[in-house]
Structures are given as C-alpha cells and as structure tokens.
Write a structure and sequence with these properties.
With 279 residues, this protein is an alpha/beta fold. It contains nine helices and twelve strands. Helix content is 37%, strand content 20%.
C-alpha cells in the first residue's frame, strides 16, 4: 500500500460491519489501477444514534466517499446536502460522495440487480416474483419496474407488500399464494431467509422451481444459499448475491474515483474471500 497524507479516505459504515467485504473489493481495485496512493477504503462500525455526529466527521475530515449499509441507508438521507433522483425514488442512499464539502447521496444497489439480470435476459415484460418488502426489496422493485418487468411482491405481512407495490406500480401478494411463482420467469429473494447462520432455510420450496426460471438471491454469505443450490438442482439459471455486491460496488468505485472499475479483479477478490469463509 502507498498511503500518504494525500491519500483520500473512502469507507463503508454499518452496524455490524465486520463481515463486510467492501474494503477488500475496493482496495484490490485501487491496487490494480495503481491508484492505491490516491485512495484507501476502510470499514467503520457506526451506531444509528451516532449518524449525525458521523456526518459531521465526514465533513471535518474531508472523507471522499461513504458506502452505507444496514441500518443507515434511510436515516443518513436527512443529513446530506443533495440526494440523487434515483436515490430519492428508492427512498434509500447506499453511496455518499463528498465533492468540495457538498455531500451528495446516491443509490447504486439497483444496478446490482439490473446488471447481472440483463447479462442473461431482457427484463421487459418478464414476470418477476420478489420475496420480501424490506429495505433491500425497495432497490430491487425500483430496478425491475424501471425495466418494465411485471412485478409481484410476496411478503409475510401483506400490508408491507401493498405499500411497496403502490410505490413502484407492482402487485402485492400474500405468502399464502407463493405457489404462483412456479409460473413466473424470475424469482428474487430479498428476505433474510437463508442468511448465515440459518443456511438450512429457503424461502421457496424446490418443487416450485423449474428449468425455465432465473433465480437470484441477494444474500451473498453463504456464497451459495440453499435456495440457489436447490434452484441449480432444478436446472434453473442462478445468480449469486455476490454479483449484486459487485455491481453496486463497481458503480460506487466510479463515483468515488472517476475511474472505470476493474470488474474482474473485484469479482476475484470477493470469490476468494467468500470461498475461504465456506472452507
């Protein structure tokens, strides 16, 4: 590493944050491009009650960029100078750029959904079942409706599904109707079902998954959830949650540095660390 007093600091904040692979991903990219003297990326555990003080610190220390994860994506918005139009529509910020003391919020999570899917298929008029109606689901819903997919949102609490559906022109469904996913083109899990340490759980019975489906799990640890393993057994096309982490990070990298991101380097370092965790 070539850190000096001129090096600009970028960071990811969350609570907890120790599990984040963003520092490894971004620092590997800086090194690949030979700009690790200009940028360094770290992780900081920030409590939600301290977010106002944290933003004051960003201003005082001229922090270049901040990636926001749970639980900060919505709360941080009230402390920023500007909010990008997309982030405003989604209702969450996962990226803050400090340009000459002006803090602007963006949301790149939606690209983490669109880019991997569009490498496989056009989303226009595709029928998509989205499982979950929480924070992660908002970016997914925005992404899919922006691409004119036909979206149905399934959630344990139907009122939450209805609220999200209303915001993005989708349809709301109860989990009692989950068998409907069998006839859809794409199934996306945006719930915490299957998240470590509950790897033995899955949001969809494998008998509802066919070889006609594209199955996407936004969970990236474990690398291959039970949901994805069973989808693969059913011959469905699968997309790992790591791809969402990667693609939202690729866009963040551009916003922070102005450079095009070395995507393969970033993918390789994520795969390496995720597989190490599983061994």
């Amino acid at each position: 590493m070539n850190i000096s007093a001129k090096t600009k600091i970028c960071m990811v904040i969350g609570d907890p944050i120790e599990h984040s692979l963003s520092p490894q991903m971004h620092n590997a990219a800086y090194e690949k491009l030979g700009i690790d003297n200009k940028y360094v990326y770290i992780g900081c555990n920030v409590k939600i009650k301290d977010i106002s003080d944290f933003i004051k610190g960003v201003r005082a220390m001229h922090i270049r960029g901040v990636s926001c994860t749970i639980p900060h994506k919505m709360e941080v918005m009230k402390y920023l100078d500007e909010i990008d139009e997309v982030a405003e529509k989604i209702g969450a910020v996962n990226t803050i750029v400090n340009k000459d003391g002006i803090l602007k919020g963006y949301n790149t999570d939606w690209l983490g959904v669109v880019v991997p899917l569009e490498k496989i298929t056009s989303l226009k008029n595709k029928t998509v079942s989205l499982l979950g109606a929480g924070g992660a689901a908002r970016a997914v819903a925005y992404a899919l409706t922006q691409r004119d997919a036909k979206l149905a949102i399934y959630n344990r609490t139907i009122e939450k599904a209805q609220e999200l559906a209303k915001d993005f022109g989708a349809e709301a469904r109860s989990l009692d109707a989950i068998e409907e996913v069998k006839n859809m083109d794409i199934i996306i899990n945006a719930t915490a079902v299957g998240l470590s340490p509950n790897e033995n759980e899955t949001p969809v019975d494998k008998k509802l998954i066919t070889n006609h489906h594209i199955v996407f799990d936004v969970i990236y640890a474990p690398y291959e959830t039970r949901f994805l393993k069973e989808a693969k057994q059913q011959k469905a096309r699968i997309i790992h949650g790591m791809e969402m982490l990667l693609q939202q990070g690729v866009e963040q990298f551009k916003l922070y540095t102005g450079y095009g991101a070395p995507e393969e380097t970033m993918r390789d370092v994520l795969l390496q660390h995720l597989r190490q965790k599983e061994n």
